[in-house]
UniProtKB/TrEMBL annotation:
Excises uracil residues from the DNA which can arise as a result of misincorporation of dUMP residues by DNA polymerase or due to deamination of cytosine. It comes from Flagellimonas alvinocaridis. Its EC number is 3.2.2.27. GO terms for molecular function: uracil DNA N-glycosylase activity. This is Uracil-DNA glycosylase. InterPro entries: UDG_fam1 (IPR002043), Ura-DNA_Glyclase_AS (IPR018085), Uracil-DNA_glycosylase-like (IPR005122), Uracil-DNA_glycosylase-like_sf (IPR036895). HAMAP family: UDG (MF_00148). It catalyses: Hydrolyzes single-stranded DNA or mismatched double-stranded DNA and polynucleotides, releasing free uracil. The active site is at D65. CDD domains: UDG-F1-like.
Amino acid sequence: MDVNIDPSWKAHLEQEFKKPYFEQLVQFVKQEYSQHTCYPKGKDIFAAFDHCSFQETKVVIIGQDPYHGPNQANGLCFSVKDGIAHPPSLVNIFKEIKVDVEKPYPKSGNLERWADQGVLLLNATLTVRAHQAGSHQNKGWEQFTDAVIRTVSEQLDGVVFLLWGGFAKKKAALIDKGKHHILTSGHPSPLSANRGLWFGNQHFSATNGLLSKLGRQPIDW
């Protein structure tokens, strides 16, 4: 079975695509897309990998589910297409960046510009049915994306993992803390941010500080 994913990732995930759970997942996704409106578009399901090659991965940000409203999801967690209103979590991300690294609030919420610099924007579940949050959870995507996190942990060095919120923090168990850096905070959603668990985490400047120490190009957030 052929999966349309960037060749640099395909080489490392080939065995995953051959496992029974993944075969079943593909059949489920095909059926969902044929019978319902689903997001992101089929060509964008693996966009996070297409914009950030395996060898270039410097930072990993973990989300939970794609946005389930029209024209929002583009295959990268927290990101929306150009010209689309910024969802609340993304607004809070940009507000923190403005204070933390003194970068003006951007017009576009499209985070492909981060991915192109080596930020893997990975949702745990890569597809969703329109207007039904979590509708494609527990169908096999999480097993696949956990394998992605483990592969990055095992085969790369000095990656900065940003784990925001309780769901993402659980993924720390998959990461070799001796080789990588893990930064955690509350989720940027209003519920968490308004309780003081997001703003002031300074993850963006901290990430760039870690990358600089490793002799790597910082991210232009």
